[in-house]
Every structure is written in C-alpha cells, then in structure tokens.
Amino acid sequence: MSSVIFYVHIKTTRHIYIGIFTKEVLDMLEKYLPVKLVDELRRQPACARAEELRMRAGVRPSLYADGAENFFGDVLTRRDIEETVHALSGRSLSAHAEELKNGYITAEGGIRVGIAGRVVAVGGRVRVMRDFTSLNIRFPREMKGIAADVLPHILVNGRLAATLIVSAPQHGKTTLMRDIIRAVSSGEGVQSAKCTVVDERMELWANGAFDLGPRTDVLSGCPKHLGLAMAGRSLSPEILATDEIGGERELGAVMEAAVSGIRLLATAHGGGYRDIVKRPYFAELIRSGCIERIIEMSETLGRGTVERVLTSEGSAVCAHPFLPRAK
Amino acid sequence: MTVKFILIAVIVGAGGALGAAIGEGMKQTLAKTEKLHVGLKHAAAAMMYRGMTLSRALAESGELTEIGEYIENNPAQSPAIKARDVLLKDKSVSPEYAKTAADLIERMSYAAVNEDIRSALEDYERHALPYLEEKRAAVNKRAKLARTLSLMASLTVAIIVA
User: Fold this and answer.
1) B95: distance to nearest CA of chain A, Å?
2) Contacts of A237 (CB under 8 A, 6+ apart)
3) What is the pTM of this model?
4) A62, A71 in Cβ contact below 8 A?
5) Interface test with B, best of A92, A111, A125, A127 (most B CBs within 10 A)
6) A118 to A126, A140, A152, B118: CA distances (angstroms)
7) Along the 327 residues of chain A, how does pLDDT read in single tens digits?
8) Of A113, A188, A221, B81, which is most buried, counting CB atoms within 10 Å of its CB?
C-alpha cells in the first residue's frame, strides 16, 4: 500500500512540475498557433500535462497526455498548418532551411516541432520541404534533480563515465541528459567537469531556456559531425554531450574525441542494449571503449523510467527499474 | 550705382537659393524611397548570406525597423499587410512603390530557400528599378525647372528694380 501511495505521490509531483512548465510553453506558443486552437487548447483538462500536440490538415488537433490521445476542437485546414509553420519560423522559412530538410523546426524556448509535408529531393538528397500538412509540437521539459538518482550508477572513480542513454522516442532521454549535463557541470553528486554540448537541434539548451550549469559551452545549431570535431579542437571539454547520435558522419568525430580522452554523453533511439549492439555504429563505439555505461529507459513506471543501467559488456550496474524524481 | 548693384545681386542670389531649396525638397521625397530600396536589398542579402530571419534583417536595415519589430512580436500576422500599412502611411512613399515593397517582403517571408529570395528580389527590381529611374529623372527635371524659373523670376525683379 505504502509503495502505491509513494508512486502516486511521485506521479503527482512530477505532473504538477510538468504542468507549470507546460503553461509557460503554451504562453510562448500562443503567438504562433491559430487563435481558435489556443482557446480550445486551454480548455482541455489534459492541457497542463501535455506531452505532444498534433496538428494535421483535415483532422481535429490532438493532445497526448498521460499516455492517452485526446482529439479536440475544430478540424484544421491546410492553411492553418502552413500559417503555423510560417509563424514558428518567424516568417523566415529560409532561415530554417537546414532544419526543415531534417523535418523539424526549433521554435522559441527550445520547442521542437516535427513537420511533414511535400519533400522535394534532388539527387537523393532533400532539398526543401513545402506544402506542410502535419505538425508535431513536443513540449520540452526541465526536471531539475532527476540526474541525482541516476548518477551513482554511471560514475567511475567519482567521475561521469562515457554514457549512452537509449530508449524509444518520447521516453525522456533528452530531459534526463539535460539534467545530467547540469549536474556534472555544477558538480552536484559528481566531480565537476567542463562540458561542451553540440546542440544541433537547439533543443538541449534552447538559447538559454534550460540551465546546463556553469561549466557548459554550447555549440548551438551546429551539425553534430562538425560540432564534435570543433569542440575537441577548441573548447577542451572533459564531457562532450550530444543528442541522438547514430549517423555515420559523426562516428569518426566521436572516436577521435574518445581517443583524446574526452568522455561522451549521448542519447540514441533504440529498444535497449540488445538492439544497439546489433547496430554496427554502436557496436564499433562500444568495442573501441567510447561508451562505458548504457542507460535503458522505458515507460514502465511512467515516462522517464530508468529501466536498467549496464556496462559496455552488458552486465547490470542497476537492474531494477526506477522513476527519477525532480528535486 | 553700387547700392543698385548690391540690390540686384541680393535678389538674384535669393532667387537662386530659393530655386535650389525647392529642388532639394523634391529630391528629399525621392531619397526616402531610395533608402527603402537600399534597405530592402540589404535585408534580402542578410537573409540569403547571413541566414538572418526576415524580422531581424528588416530591423537592421535601418529604414524598415518598425516592420521588423512587428513581425518579431506578431509572427502569426501577415508581414505584407503590416508593410503596406506602414509604407502607405508615409506620404513620401508612393502607393505604387509601397505595394511593390510589400510584395517583396511577403515573398521573402514565404521563401523556403535562397533561390526563392533571389527570385523575389529580381521580380521586385524589375518593377522598382524602372520606377525609381523614372522618378529620379522626373524629380531632376522638375528641380532643374524650379531652379531656372526661380532664377528667371529673380532676374526679372532685379531688372525692374534696377
């Protein structure tokens, strides 16, 4: 019984925290979204706990919260989607051309918006995306203190080990990594270290919207393969952090950094350790010692559950799932 | 004799100065449009080569700050409508040029790649350059006429006085 109460308490605390932040995000988004949608959105009971807002042409918008999807309001038109994308780009799609080629746009406050539409590809490469039809607005969250529960499992001699956070999308990888960076940079529960964040999607730091600690340098909007090399050459980091690795182009830069004694902190999409060791990219990183700890995340105890923490050989450092708490 | 000579010189001089002032006034009206033209070209270049957003590029162009700030604060509103309002409110800018400039701003806001901006700029110049050239020639002609008429009038007065 007590464990049930404890669990409910954790969930409630977390939701209140997320709710406050979601309201700020909504205030920020207000000037970009169609007026009719904002009014409807604020009336939704699940609004305060929203994780994602989906907008699709010809369909009613939907809100993901507490693992459920709620459709609400009026059907959106193609023009609504187009106008929202233009507004999110600050009326300058060309300034976001590179992001659009990768299917997203980062708006104010690090709000990442996934975009679908007509892709114009030339010579096998995406040249531009036009005629937008869907949007996926992901509400970013800052949960200060969640790293404290995880850090004891990813330390080697009091210092942060080279760590890879693995999970399926929407399980809180970025939120956890953001707090680990903040904790390491601030020296909270771990020996402090200089961190460089290669924030290609401008989601981790979001132009200062999130606290990444006092010893963190951020290369904002920089492609990972270039940023990793640049950071190693000029910023002398001890920890090199980046989101969603897995591209062949950055493999060389990651290996080069590891050889120079820089420890990697990264996230990757995947089902877990068993999945990633089958992928040549990660197998190579593990084999060459670029990764010492692997954090598997899931939703078994709620979003952001740390399922297991493993060494690079696959032996468990922590085998019991737990839900890190915001302090 | 000396007094008469001084009087003639003063009248002719004043007439010439008045003519020059009228001509300058006419040129000032054109100068505002030319500054807008240069500002828009700078803004387009800033977007293409420095990856600036439209609002920032306009704000830094010097002449279109109000429109840039408006876009920054109201991204969901149409930049073209605001641009048209602002430019039409300015009496020194002709409605024809205001429309051409607003069209360019609108196309720059919708441009997905640099080629779109370049193409919008080319279309804008196709309309704006002949217009500016024509205006420049007309203003120069009128200014010259004003100077000549003023000088002739003052000479006539001077002769009568003499």
Assistant:
1) 24
2) A193, A194, A195, A196, A217, A231, A262
3) 0.71
4) yes
5) A92
6) 11, 26, 47, 22
7) 333 333 333 333 333 333 444 667 777 888 889 888 888 888 888 887 788 899 999 999 999 887 788 999 999 999 999 999 999 988 889 888 888 988 998 887 778 899 999 998 888 888 888 899 999 998 877 888 999 999 999 999 889 999 999 999 888 899 999 999 999 999 998 999 999 999 988 888 877 888 999 999 999 888 888 998 888 888 999 999 999 898 888 888 888 888 888 999 999 999 889 888 899 888 988 888 899 999 999 989 888 899 999 999 999 999 999 999 887
8) A113
Residues in chain A: 327
With contacts defined as CB-CB under 8 Å, which chain A residues touch B108? 92, 94
Q: Tell me the angle at which helices B114-161 and B2-50 cross, rounded to the nearest 10 degrees.
A: 180
Q: List, as ranges, residues 20-79 from B with C-beta within 8 Å of A.
A: 47-48, 51-55, 71-76, 79
A91/B114 touch (CB, cutoff 8 Å), yes or no:
no
A-B CB pairs within 8 A amount to: 67
Query: Which residue of A31, A91, A132 to mutate against B (max B Cβ within 10 Å)?
Result: A91
Q: Which two tokens stand for residue A66?
A: 């507490």
Confidence check on the interface: ipTM exceeds 0.85, yes or no? no
User: Between chains, do B47 and A92 touch, taking CB under 8 Å as contact?
Assistant: yes
CB contact under 8 A, B109 and A91: yes
